[in-house]
Amino acid sequence: MPEKDDTFEKITTHLITSGFVYPGSEIYGGLSNSWDYGPLGVLLKNHLKDLWLRHFVREIEYNVQIDPAIIMNPKVWEATGHVANFHDPLVDCKYCHSRFRADDLVKEQCPDIDVDGLDQKALNEIVQSGRVVCPKCGKSQFTEIRQFQMMFKTFIGVTEEKSSAVYLRPETAQGIFVNFKNVLRTTRRKLPIGICDIGKAFRNEITPGNFTFRTREFEQMEIEFFFKPGEDEKWFAFYKENCRQFVERLGLRPDHVRFRNHEKEELAFYSSATTDIEYLFPSLGWGELMGIACRGDYDLKRHMEKSSQDLTYLDSETHEKYVPHVVEPSFGLDRLMLALLMDSYEVEKLEDGKDERIVMHLAYELAPYTAAVMPLSNALKEEALEVFRMIHPEFDAIFDTTGSIGKRYRREDAIGTPFCVTYDFDSKNDHMVTIRERDSMKQERVAIDNLADYLHDKMRKDRRL
Ligand code: GAP
């Protein structure tokens, strides 16, 4: 038997024990596939959002950001087709009662079959034919396929009546489409315009799992970019290139990232082209981080029909009136974080050949803490604290007094802190501190007065673009 690759599990254990992620509701025994972000996770997440905002909002002159509500009028989801079609085909194993997505079973076990081209009847016939087995118990008897609505339903107001039923949004995108006219009117902009949004989305996934890769509650960073019909290829290429640059900026290993164009059969019926960016996760293989889709005028037209509102655009110079087309780059924030954490993790053998350290080679601007300030001895605590207080308003920094300096260095390496700043007995006299860099482990003396400039300079130089 080949040895099972447990790299993914090893890294997730490290992320939990070091405080990036906690199991959700842990003191009550947890809730399956629910995860909370700890202080380190939140800092990394904030830095990733900041970078996304800088790259896609500030640095693209056409783009603006909005923050629509999570609970929307349910007619939105009727218009988009989510109420009718946002289903997964569900089957249960009749022996062990494990639950699966029928299309996943067929995809994994019948590589000769094009699952995306099958309707429910054809899919059901394959599942019932004995060609697929239960991955848990190996038996081949399944219930008939049932369609499972993936939107979470809840109620507003005091009564749980049908009329008060609403959904938690399964994507942030529709909050953008319904505000298209508002944004145009209030910003007085012309096309092209990109409207961006970062926020939570909810899907009642049948098979969540692989840590934060697939959860029922996750964050998306989405852009709907509106332009004149006919310019689809141009803007699709523009965003593919921008997304490529963004991924480069994150510092992911290039040979672990690929762009995958959807085949014709895989495309949604309204999409003329879609490209996914995938990451090669340890133990799991390639997984989707984000998608860039040409959506044509599908969404605006559906909302026009259902709301009876005019969402056409009037070009004030050419007097042309049309429904804009859209390119949608849609990132999963949690997946991107997971890829970054997996990508940056290394168990490094040290020069003596015996010792090893865990080190997270995160880009400096993404690392939870930029610097850890530490007194060499507890007798120097007050002076070191002053140094910490000096840089803390400008940088995410941490003050660490426990354990030997060597242990403190290892602890910071393991959470990706680029710089350890040590206040020692000489510091009192020469007003300098020792700075030790995470990846090279090289040390240098820096004047305390220049510390902030030093860190800014290092951060700037580490930026990938
Ligand atoms: N508006 C388009 C849209 O929502 P999607 O491919 O369904 O497209 C976009 O989702 C991204 O959101 C995915 O590439 C993935 O990164 C993330 N995502 C989707 N479902 C997820 C889940 N259950 N858990 C974590 N991330 C998810």
Number of helices: 15
Ligand inventory: glycyl-adenosine-5'-phosphate
- N-end to C-end Cα span: 45 Å
Proportion of helical residues: 25-40%
> Strand percentage, roughly?
25-35%
Task: Tell me the radius of gyration.
Answer: 26 Å
Major sheet strand order: 3-9-10-16-13-12-11
Shape: globular
Summarize the structure.
The protein is α+β, with helices and mostly antiparallel strands and 465 residues long. The protein has 15 helices and 23 strands.
Notable characteristics:
465 residues, alpha+beta, 7-stranded mixed beta sheet, 5-stranded mixed beta sheet, binds glycyl-adenosine-5'-phosphate
Provide the fold topology.
Elements: H1 7-18, E1 21-23, E2 35-37, H2 39-58, E3 63-65, H3 75-80, H4 82-85, E4 87-92, E5 99-101, H5 102-109, H6 120-128, E6 146-149, E7 153-155, E8 165-167, H7 173-177, H8 180-187, E9 193-202, E10 217-227, H9 232-250, E11 257-261, E12 273-281, E13 285-296, H10 298-307, E14 313-314, E15 321-322, E16 325-332, H11 333-344, E17 345-349, E18 356-360, E19 371-375, H12 381-391, E20 397-399, H13 405-413, E21 419-423, H14 427-430, E22 432-437, E23 443-447, H15 451-462
Helix pairs in contact: 5-6
The site of glycyl-adenosine-5'-phosphate has 18 residues, from strand 10, strand 13, strand 16 and helix 11.
What does this structure look like?
This protein is of the alpha+beta class and 465 residues long. 32% of the residues lie in helices and 26% in strands. The chain is built from 15 helices and 23 strands. It has helices at residues 7-18, 39-58, 75-80, 82-85, 102-109, 120-128, 173-177, 180-187, 232-250, 298-307, 333-344, 381-391, 405-413, 427-430, 451-462; strands at residues 21-23, 35-37, 63-65, 87-92, 99-101, 146-149, 153-155, 165-167, 193-202, 217-227, 257-261, 273-281, 285-296, 313-314, 321-322, 325-332, 345-349, 356-360, 371-375, 397-399, 419-423, 432-437, 443-447. Strands 3-9-10-16-13-12-11 form a seven-stranded mixed sheet, with helices on both faces. A hairpin with a 6-residue loop joins β14 (313-314) and β15 (321-322). α5 packs across α6 (120-128). The longest helix is centred in the first third of the chain and has 20 residues, at 39-58. It is globular. The chain starts with 6 loop residues before the first helix and ends with a helix. Bound molecules: glycyl-adenosine-5'-phosphate (GAP).
